[in-house]
């Protein structure tokens, strides 16, 4: 199995970095090929905008999707984007590792979605959702949070984890990925392990190693998250059932 | 009333820009003071990271919240951040205008949250949610989307609008804002009005002017969105009721 870990944290010695290192080591020990895309380290620019496109589909007005489609067809997509697409094409499993900032991924990862999931090249009006480009590939979101894991239940103070991750999960579903249940490392105090001490960190990492080992052993047994698909919608894109989206 | 419009779209002639212009004009005509924070135009950097902090709370390890607290106390927050905080302090109503990209705000706006909602300065463990810093101020999210509005119902192809906006809405609730029901302009074809033609744009703008006029006239009558607060949680931050988060 080829695994891509998309990593989004500014600190190389952060708890997130430690989790990515642990996952890389464990997956390789299990015989898988692992590639890491460290967005901060590579200096990825998360801001979609006109500077990324030349020649322009329309030099007078910037329309992101129109520029993406034209650049994808003309072969003029930014190298940082084509590199990420190549990594996705190689991957059987994509792991997203990041800290929950404001009930969502950091801007660095959000912008990766904005720029890398290229209109036309990776999806069209008919090549989406359960007919998406990455059909057959699995995605797994692994996050850290400052609040204790117990606060992320339904109605909890931290917010329901399913609601926090729904936009990313649904975007992955849109691209055709089979989305596995997420992994949460709570109580990381919201700012990496700097203020947690080496002992607490070691404990967290040991726990995380166990969690990852369990996930790896039962990955094929994981029950993927369920999202509505083409059979659930009428021609106008309305639900034909009482499908819940979160 | 003082209104701040936080605007996040790269194209000055986009449908979003037209909506912000219309809102500015109408609100001023209604006698309100309006300030616009155009994040792309001002070149706001949405990437939270070590480059924004000097001196560092910890020069060896970057921990965002620790650096934010230290900079807030030392008065060394980045000028781009203090300017946004000043605008928020002045505002009675904050409108967020952006296109829905990948079921969420563009990275530019997400990073505005990551950097501007400063730990310590604007929130603490006890000064959050219904005890938040911006208690008494109202927030209103106005978005455009390529898919028709009808696809954003529960279980619809576009995804439930409440689920799409929940992370931003809950973050605003976290900061103490009273969150008003969102405004959606659907069917903008995902890439501004470039491919929609002047006639369709004019129709959309006229419709939007009517919608805004209605919202302005009944703003005080709007029923705010409901989110769990301190009375809904036990000491561990768990829900003491069946509060739904999305």
UniProtKB/TrEMBL annotation, chains A, B:
Domain Flavodoxin-like fold residue range list: 1-193
Q: Which GO terms describe its molecular function?
A: NAD(P)H dehydrogenase (quinone) activity
Q: Which UniProt keywords apply?
A: Oxidoreductase
Q: Name one GO cellular component term.
A: cytosol
Give the highest taxon in the source lineage.
Bacteria
Give the family this protein belongs to, as stated in its UniProt record: Belongs to the NAD(P)H dehydrogenase (quinone) family.
Q: What is this protein called?
A: NAD(P)H dehydrogenase (Quinone)
Highest classification ranks of the organism:
Bacteria, Pseudomonadati, Pseudomonadota, Alphaproteobacteria, Rhodospirillales
């Amino acid at each position: 199995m080829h695994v891509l870990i998309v990593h989004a944290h500014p600190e190389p010695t952060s708890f997130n970095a430690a989790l990515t290192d642990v996952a890389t080591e464990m997956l390789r020990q299990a015989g898988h090929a692992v590639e890491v895309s460290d967005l901060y380290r590579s200096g990825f620019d998360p801001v979609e905008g006109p500077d990324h496109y030349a020649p322009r589909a329309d030099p007078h007005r910037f329309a992101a999707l129109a520029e993406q489609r034209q650049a994808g067809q003309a072969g003029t997509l930014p190298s940082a984007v084509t590199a990420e697409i190549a990594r996705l094409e190689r991957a059987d499993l994509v792991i997203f590792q990041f800290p929950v900032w404001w009930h969502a991924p950091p801007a660095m990862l959000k912008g990766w979605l904005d720029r890398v999931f290229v209109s036309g090249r990776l999806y069209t009006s008919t090549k989406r959702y359960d007919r998406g480009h990455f059909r057959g590939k699995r995605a797994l979101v692994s996050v850290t949070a400052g609040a204790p894991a117990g606060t992320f239940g339904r109605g909890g103070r931290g917010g329901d984890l399913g609601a926090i991750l729904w936009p990313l999960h649904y975007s992955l579903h849109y691209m055709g990925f089979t989305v596995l249940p997420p992994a949460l490392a709570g109580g990381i105090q919201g700012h990496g392990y700097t203020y947690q001490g080496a002992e607490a960190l070691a404990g967290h990492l040991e726990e995380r190693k166990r969690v990852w080992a369990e996930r790896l052993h039962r990955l094929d047994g994981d029950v993927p998250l369920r999202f509505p698909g083409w059979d659930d919608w009428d021609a106008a894109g309305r639900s034909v059932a009482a499908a819940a989206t979160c």
